[in-house]
Amino acid sequence: MENQKKKLKNLLIISLILMLICGFGVSAVQTQMGSVEMKELNIETDKGYSMSAYLFIPDTATPETPAPAIVTSHGYLNNKEMTDANYVELSRRGYVVLAIDQPNHGDSEVTADFQIPQPSGVYQGVLALSRMPFVDTEKIGITGHSMGSWSCNAAVAEDNEADIPLISAVLIHCNDAVYADDNGEFSNIYGKRPVGIISAVYDEFFGKSTDENGNMLSSPYFMESKEAQSFLNFGKNPEGTEPKEAFEYYTETVDGAETFRVIYRPEIVHAWSHFSARSESYVIDFFERALGAPNPIDSGEQIWQLKEALNLVGLIGFVLFICSFGCSLLYTKPFELLRAKEIVLPRPVQTKQGAVWFWATLAAGALFGTVIYLPVMAKGTTLPTNQIMTMGQGIWSTLCGIFAIVLILAFYHLYGKKNGTDLKNAGIEISLKKIGLSILLALITTAAAYGCVFITDYFFLADFRIWTLAVKAFEAPILAYIPYICLFLTYYIAASISVNCFNYNNIGGKFNAVLCALFAAAPAIILIVIQYVTYVLTNHMQWAQISMATPNYPMFIIGMYTMVPILFVTTLISRFFYKRTENPYIAGIINAVIVGTIVITNTCTTF
What we know:
The model has no long low-confidence stretch (mean pLDDT 96). The longest helix is centred in the N-terminal third of the chain and has 29 residues, at 2-30. By secondary structure, the chain is an alpha/beta fold. 48% of the residues lie in helices and 12% in strands.
C-alpha cells in the first residue's frame, strides 16, 4: 500500500510541475519574455454586447510611436485562443493585436443578435483598436479563420458606410471573399484595401464553384473558377483575360492608391490551416506587405509551435493530475472504502469462445458508433437547443452507451454467467454507500482538476490544449449549460464497465487497455479516414454539404478530430482508476464531467 501511495504522490507532483511549466512557458512565449504586454479585456461594444479579447501591445507601440494593429478572429465553435499562431507571430513583429471571442463564443456575451454568416465581432474590434492611443489608425488590418472571415467581410461592409473608414487591409482565411454585388455582378467591395485569401486546397466548406454544366466543384478546382479569377482582377469580369495564378501578388491602382490581391493555396484541410506553419507564413507576409512590420522577422521563423507544445505539456499534466489526485483520495479516511485491497489484475480468457466475445463486442461497438454518427448528428443538430453540436454529440454518446449496455447484457447472459463472471467481484454490483462515495470522489477530482485550469488562466493567461482539443477556463454564465453533461454519462459509465469489468483480460497482454482504447476511438478514426482519403483521391468528399438547407456533414466530421484523443485517453483513465478501486463508476463519472465540460466550453451558444 505504501508503495502505491508513494507512486501516486510522485505522479501528482509531476502533474503539477507539468502544468506549471505550461503556465510559465506559455506566458513567456506570448509576452516575448516581457517585450509584449498581454491583457485580457472585456469590451463593451457599440452593438450593446460585451466581447472578450486578448490585447497584445509591443513595447515599441506608444502614443508617440503608434503601431499598425490587427484584429484576429477564430471560426465557428472556437474561441480566441485558437488564433494563437496569429497573435504570437504578429505581436512579436511589432503589431498591436486584438484577438477576439466572437459573440456567443468563448467568454463573450451570448446575444440574440448573433448572426451567421455575418457576426459583428471583427468590426467591434476595429472600433476598439481605433480608440487606443498607441495604434496607428491608418494601418488597421483584419483577419479571421472560417466564420471569422465572414465577420471580416461584414466589417468591410460596415466600414464602407462609415464617415471615416478604418480598415486598411483584409486577409480572408479559409473562406470566400465577396466576389459579386447584390445583382450578381462581379464587383470589388474592398476598394483600395490590399486583400488576400488563404484558400486551403482541401477546404471542406469554401472555395467551391460550378462547371459549365452547373455541377458543384470542390475547393481543389477553385483557382480555375470565375470567382477566383475575378478577385485577382480586382472585381472585374475575368472573361477574355489571361488566367492568374496562386501565390502571385497582382497590383493595380484603385481610387488613386496602388493596392494588391493575392490567393495563397496551401495543400491542407480547413481546420489545419489555423495550425499550419505554411498558412502562418502567408499571414506574416501579407501583413508585412500591406501594413509594414515594425519589427520585420522572416516569415519562416516562427515560435508559436513552442507555445502549442507547452500547452500540450499542460494537457498531459492535467490528465495525470486527474489520475493521481483522484486515486490519492483513496488513501484518505472518507474514501478508503473505495480502495481495492490490491491492484486488480487482468482476468485470463478461459476459452476460445471468450476471445471471440472480446473481439466481437469491441468490433460491434465500434461499428455501431461509426454507422449512427452522421445521421444522429444530422438530427440532433436540428433540435431546439442552445448548443447544437453539444446536443448532437451528446445524443450520439447516449445511444452508444445504450448499445454498450446491450452488448454487456448479451455477453453476461450468453457467455459470462456460465463461465465464472461474477458481477459483484467485477465491481458492477456495489453498495449505495459506495455509489455515493464514488460520485463525491469523482466530483471533487474534476473540481480540483478544473481548479488547476482556472489558476493557470488567472496567473498566466494560458490553458491546456492541442489543435482542436482545449481544456480552458470559462465564465460563470456557461454554468447554465452544465446539465448537458448528463448526455455523456450513459456512454462513459457503460464504456468503463465494458472496458474494465468484461474486457480487462490477458488478450493483448500489457497492451489490453490500448486495444480497448483504439476500438473506443475507432468510429472517429474510421470516419475521418474515409472522408479525407476520398477527398485527396477524387477531389470530392465522401460526405459533403449539398446546400445550407442540408446537414453539415463536413462539420460533423471535424467534430470527430477532438473525439479521437478524448475517446482514447478516457479509456486509459478508466483503466487506471479501476485497477486501484475495482470500481468502474468513479472514472465513468469523471470522464463524463470532464468531456462534457470540454464540449460545452468550446462551442457556440445561441438563444
